[in-house]
Design brief:
The chain has 337 residues and is an alpha/beta fold. The chain contains ten helices and 16 strands. It has two domains: 171 residues, Medium-chain alcohol dehydrogenases, catalytic domain (Quinone Oxidoreductase, Chain A, domain 1, Alpha-Beta Complex); 136 residues, NAD(P)-binding Rossmann-like Domain (Rossmann fold), CATH 3.40.50. Strands 3, 5, 6, 7, 8, 15 and 16 form a seven-stranded mixed sheet that branches. It has a six-stranded parallel sheet with strand order 11-10-9-12-13-14, with helices on both faces. A three-stranded antiparallel sheet has the order 2-1-4, with no helix packed on it. Helix 3 packs across helix 4 and helix 6 packs parallel to helix 7.
Length: 337
Amino acid sequence: MKSFHMSLGAGLSGLELQHHDVPEPGSREVLLRVHATSLNYRELSILVRGRYPLPVKPGVVALCDGAGEVVALGPGVTRVKRGERVMASIFPRWMDGPFSLEVAAQLGGSLDGMLAEYVVLSEDALVPVPTHLSYEEAAAVPCASVTAWNALTGAQPLMPGDDVLTLGSGNVSLFALLLAKVSGARVIATTSSDEKAARLRALGADHVVNYLKNPRWAEEVRDLTGGKGVQRVVEVGGGSLEQSLRAVAMSGEIGIVGSLAGGSSTIDASALFATGACLRVIVAGSRAHLVRVARAMALHEVRPVLARVFELDDAPAAFAWYFEGHGFGKTVIRVAS
């Protein structure tokens, strides 16, 4: 079988193809024939920028997202059966509850990931694929969707009629838009171009604000909410935190998703106190988050946005294409047809 491996800071040229025997599942483990996997910003942080907050073992099998077919069961498996289509939770030991170091083992990090023809995973890590999704679509779901869901349904439940602000058109923001809409929220999105604005509206955004045309876009968001501000902000990158604080409603919540592209902000403690808002750091999500996302997507037939699908042998080209910033939606690698 084939697999692609990476190491912290190895660069795009450091993505290494290896050949080895198909692994065998142990107790309560499952052998999965991977059909598709997808890229997230974390892979560029690990491979290109050489920075990641969690451990990454040298030569780890790359990528945390993936979907495939169960082809063999180890002793004691009861949660899945042969032939079942499943997605992998990126934190196989994080079942539910708050995140902690005890459950921080992560696919494509301290654990081998999904960019391989076959993988062995704990049965606890697997969630059935919604029937309306292809393998390529299912492979786009786990990381970005649970991050968005966690940001939307955190310390305070998202209520129908709430206003949600999503920033940009990255994959977490796109999932936040889709999931907020099926939850009955009104979505205000920010973007940098008229073309992207049109695509965001087509996905259901109620209002789109161009942050390049209006650098003080928080004022426009406030106007759109009658001066009240939004109940929830999905803040990606951290570079726009000052504006997010100005846009959030009293006692609202800002979910801070990573530090994409090295974004940084200085928090004005007075501004934070004045909003009464909660700043909450989002660390992707648990298996329970993925189960709930899958249910929501199945009920409303939500489909992820795919930018481009590459074949397994073209994995290095997929990484390069994604690194160059192409596409609107997920970059997927098809492993098996």
